[in-house]
Here is the input.
Amino acid sequence: MRPATMHPMAAGPVTERPAPRAVVAFMTVAEVAAIMRVSKMTVYRLVHGGELAAVRVGRSFRVPEPAVREYLADARTDVA
Here is the structure.
């Protein structure tokens, strides 16, 4: 009888798979601009000014979806 840690077809012990990571969706500057209904230049200004988090990939930027949601949540103002 085989030990419980052995896979029936494997010669060695079974290794555990790492826990699945949370999927982070990245958006292009054009996609962010469309969601926010502003120009791409406005998004670039927000990124370069440090107001909107982004990752540089080669010569372009990718913006994590949570960063867009956070920016929009913080940018809301109450109108009396």
Notes: DSSP finds three helices and three strands in the chain. Helices lie at 29-36, 40-48, 65-75. Residues 26-75 form one domain. The first strand starts at residue 26 and ends at 28.
